[in-house]
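Reply to dn_fold:

You asked what the input looked like. This is it:
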Amino acid sequence: MREDRRLAAFGRLLDIMDELRAKCPWDREQTFESLRNNTIEETFELAEAIAEGNPKEIRQELGDLLLHIVFYAKIGSEAGLFDIADVANGISDKLVYRHPHVFSDIHADTPGQVSQNWEQLKMREKSRKQGVLSGVPQSLPAMVKAYRIGQKAASAGFDWEQREDVWEKVREELAEVETEMKSATAVHSAENSKRLQEEFGDLFFALINAARLYGIDPELALERCNQKFIRRFNHIEENVSTEGKQLRDLTLEQLEAYWQEAKADEKRELR
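and this is what came back:
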């Protein structure tokens, strides 16, 4: 049965971890703190594999991340703090509690209703003194943090009534960026730069909320844009190199022609 196969595989991983902590000098010396940066790196590598849509890499990176979870649980067990069973039971209890539409008599017919119920239940778990946004980790990358802030504020009822309304805010913030940019050009100073930075931040925040309202992950969207730019720029470099020239030897119009050629190639590959 698949159930037995999954349990056997997980049991094997736990046994291997026991062996490593007992017999490997490097593994034996690791702590919560020493593993932290590696865990962050593994998380980003998983995110990269997901952005690339590479199932083989996703599976491998999930394994690397699972190793870290088992590693932390082993360290916790040795210190008498918690073990892997506590970790698994804790998340199982949380999932049951936060899915009353599955395990109780609460109804949720759409993903949006499920998400809203989830955030409301999370708020109930925290004291009122902590506030709605207290669950957003300060160490998150800025774009991910902005997205989560928008989600949590929306769960408390602080959101646009219609998602189309967000574009008025985007246009407002864009206008403020343009106004501040003109001011900074006329009189350049540290204070001008600070205000311009703030206005750009407001514009980014509005766009991230627009993405949220339209069901788009802004981090993933930007990463795919990054990868697209890299592919097209590589196409330019390869063609310029074939001509025995440097990028600076060509005009912007010539470079743009290669860029458009790369775009056309991508469209043909999608057909």
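The longest helix spans residues 218-242.
Hope that clears it up.
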